[in-house]
């Protein structure tokens, strides 16, 4: 068990904001090694979990056109919009599961008489490869492929959480994959502006334990509050220069819409300038209207770090991976799915 100051009685809440960290922490059993007063919370690090209902509804409406084929990652299929999911609308060849944005190019070339729309979902981790694909399509004239973007930026949502007066987070494990693209300096604001201990760490159990231990030391006053990069083999000071160049060329910053949260200013990435010719939002004139629908799902509270999955009355009862009520139980990187799969007894 990790040791903490036994005289420190206050509940300590540490949040991670990376779907891979969510899954790795649950799988490794790290929670069972921590004292009872230390809580590990999962923030909005799963891109599927934060994709809004309106986006899913718009994708489903595209299928009203028999000429349209949707290309999507598999974990998007079960995510519900306001009334249904893509899996419920899936026919023989109207929705195709792909494993890379580049697969959508091959699909469009194979189906020249169809319009292929790729559902571009993710954070700054997947945004560069999608940007490279968009650039490739624009320059090489694949005329029947379009991109429906719901790409998110990590910094604005972290600011949204940390500026909330009800925020009770004591330390932050920064998203390692996003940091490898943007660079470690992209998250220094967490400590410098919000005076919160923050760490970048890897995904192996020992990496995460080291990150948590360093945060506990700071929170308990054993060491000064600081920002630490413990993942230097993969996260440099400035990040991946080429990946950022692709993003800066292809995308522009715009408002983003987050499931259960709503609009967060400057938290989205949309297509810029000449690349808007490939923008499905422009082609089909999608509305950004958010539809509110009563739901027993408490994903909002979970991804904002206000609740742990087991604090939801539906968790493991009406909401399971077989019968999910919300996206946090659908994606393997969702907090609820990870908690459910890797041992509810250790939560």
Automatic annotation (TrEMBL):
GO molecular function terms here?
4 iron, 4 sulfur cluster binding; carbon monoxide binding; iron ion binding
Q: Which UniProt keywords apply?
A: Iron, Metal-binding
GO terms for biological process, alphabetical? protein maturation
Q: Which Pfam families match?
A: HypD
Asked if the Swiss-Prot or TrEMBL record annotates the protein with the keyword Iron, the reply is yes
- Which InterPro entries does this chain map to? Hyd_form_HypD, HypD_1, HypD_2_sf
Q: Which family does it belong to?
A: Belongs to the HypD family.
Stored NCBIfam families: hypD (TIGR00075)
Q: State what protein this is by name.
A: Hydrogenase isoenzymes formation protein HypD
């Amino acid at each position: 068990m990790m040791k903490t100051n036994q005289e420190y009685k206050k509940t300590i809440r540490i949040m991670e904001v990376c779907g891979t960290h969510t899954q790795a922490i649950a799988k490794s059993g790290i929670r069972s090694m921590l004292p009872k007063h230390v809580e590990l919370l999962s923030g909005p690090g799963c891109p599927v979990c934060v994709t809004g209902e309106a986006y899913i509804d718009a994708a489903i409406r595209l299928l009203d056109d028999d000429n349209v084929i949707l290309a999507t990652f598999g974990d998007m299929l079960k995510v519900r919009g306001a009334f249904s999911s893509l899996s419920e609308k899936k026919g023989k060849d109207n929705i195709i599961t792909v494993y890379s944005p580049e697969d959508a190019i091959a699909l469009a070339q194979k189906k020249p008489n169809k319009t292929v729309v790729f559902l571009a979902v993710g954070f700054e981790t997947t945004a560069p490869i999608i940007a490279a694909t968009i650039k490739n399509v624009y320059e090489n004239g694949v005329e029947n492929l379009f991109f429906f973007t719901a790409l998110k930026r990590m910094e604005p949502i972290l600011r949204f959480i940390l500026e909330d007066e009800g925020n009770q987070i004591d330390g932050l494990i920064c998203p390692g994959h996003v940091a490898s693209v943007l660079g470690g300096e992209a998250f220094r604001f967490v400590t410098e502006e919000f005076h919160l201990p923050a760490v970048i760490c890897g995904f192996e159990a020992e990496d995460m334990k080291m990150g948590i231990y360093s945060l506990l030391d700071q929170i308990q006053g054993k060491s000064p509050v600081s920002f630490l990069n413990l993942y230097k083999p993969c996260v440099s000071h400035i990040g991946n220069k080429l990946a950022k160049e692709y993003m800066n060329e292809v995308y522009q910053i715009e408002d983003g819409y987050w499931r259960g949260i709503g609009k967060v200013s400057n938290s989205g990435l949309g297509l810029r300038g000449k690349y808007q010719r490939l923008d499905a939002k422009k082609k089909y004139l999608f509305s950004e209207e958010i539809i509110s629908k009563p739901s027993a799902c408490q994903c909002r509270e979970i991804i904002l770090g206000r609740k742990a999955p087991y604090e939801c009355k539906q968790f493991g009862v009406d909401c399971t991976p077989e019968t999910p009520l919300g996206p946090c139980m659908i994606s393997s990187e969702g907090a609820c799915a990870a908690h459910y799969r890797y041992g509810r007894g250790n939560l």
